[in-house]
Amino acid sequence: MFQDTRQTYGTLSKSLHWLMAVLVGWQLLKFGDRIADGEHWVGQTLVPWHISIGTLLLVLIVIRLVWALQQRNRRPEPDPALRTFVKAGHGLLYAVLLLMPVTGILVMVGGGYGLSAFGMQLIAEGEEVAWASTLGGLHSPLAWALTALIAGHIVMALFHHFVKKDETLRRMV
């Protein structure tokens, strides 16, 4: 089943969710740079992929947003009592997931570094761009916000599974 239904999410929704979960988890390893100035296995092996993975995540979140909009009338409905809370939480997750790579690109362009992903030069190096650098300054605070949103998302999924014992988590697995 490729498309979503009222009972469960489809193959594409599940695949995008879990692929992005793994990639965002990888991105959050960047916090490890704050430990011993990144002089450890994680900082030297996984973190150098940060910009490339962030660029890939930008593509994936755009695909995911377009897909979610196309599937919005097919997707499982949240508990009516919690609908506003659920939609706001997911809306914030989508917004921050989109803003993270955008502000990351602004950091690079604003600093005059250009943008390279997976060995391809996407934006040439150039002069510093003050406004881009300023907006790019939101990248780190957004990373902390995303971490909090992810933690809340996981806690709520586990709450639904173990406390409410409903099918919420199973729909995405």
Automatic annotation (TrEMBL):
<keyword id="KW-0472">Membrane</keyword>
<dbReference type="GO" id="GO:0005886">
    <property type="term" value="C:plasma membrane"/>
</dbReference>
<feature type="transmembrane region" description="Helical">
    <location>
        <begin position="142"/>
        <end position="163"/>
    </location>
</feature>
<dbReference type="GO" id="GO:0020037">
    <property type="term" value="F:heme binding"/>
</dbReference>
<keyword id="KW-0812">Transmembrane</keyword>
<dbReference type="GO" id="GO:0009055">
    <property type="term" value="F:electron transfer activity"/>
</dbReference>
<keyword id="KW-0249">Electron transport</keyword>
<dbReference type="InterPro" id="IPR011577">
    <property type="entry name" value="Cyt_b561_bac/Ni-Hgenase"/>
</dbReference>
<keyword id="KW-0349">Heme</keyword>
<feature type="transmembrane region" description="Helical">
    <location>
        <begin position="12"/>
        <end position="29"/>
    </location>
</feature>
<keyword id="KW-0479">Metal-binding</keyword>
<protein>
    <submittedName>
        <fullName>Cytochrome b561</fullName>
    </submittedName>
</protein>
<dbReference type="GO" id="GO:0022904">
    <property type="term" value="P:respiratory electron transport chain"/>
</dbReference>
<feature type="transmembrane region" description="Helical">
    <location>
        <begin position="91"/>
        <end position="113"/>
    </location>
</feature>
<dbReference type="InterPro" id="IPR016174">
    <property type="entry name" value="Di-haem_cyt_TM"/>
</dbReference>
<dbReference type="InterPro" id="IPR052168">
    <property type="entry name" value="Cytochrome_b561_oxidase"/>
</dbReference>
<dbReference type="GO" id="GO:0046872">
    <property type="term" value="F:metal ion binding"/>
</dbReference>
<feature type="transmembrane region" description="Helical">
    <location>
        <begin position="49"/>
        <end position="70"/>
    </location>
</feature>
<dbReference type="Pfam" id="PF01292">
    <property type="entry name" value="Ni_hydr_CYTB"/>
</dbReference>
<comment type="similarity">
    <text>Belongs to the cytochrome b561 family.</text>
</comment>
<feature type="domain" description="Cytochrome b561 bacterial/Ni-hydrogenase">
    <location>
        <begin position="9"/>
        <end position="173"/>
    </location>
</feature>
<keyword id="KW-1003">Cell membrane</keyword>
<keyword id="KW-1133">Transmembrane helix</keyword>
<keyword id="KW-0408">Iron</keyword>
<keyword id="KW-0813">Transport</keyword>
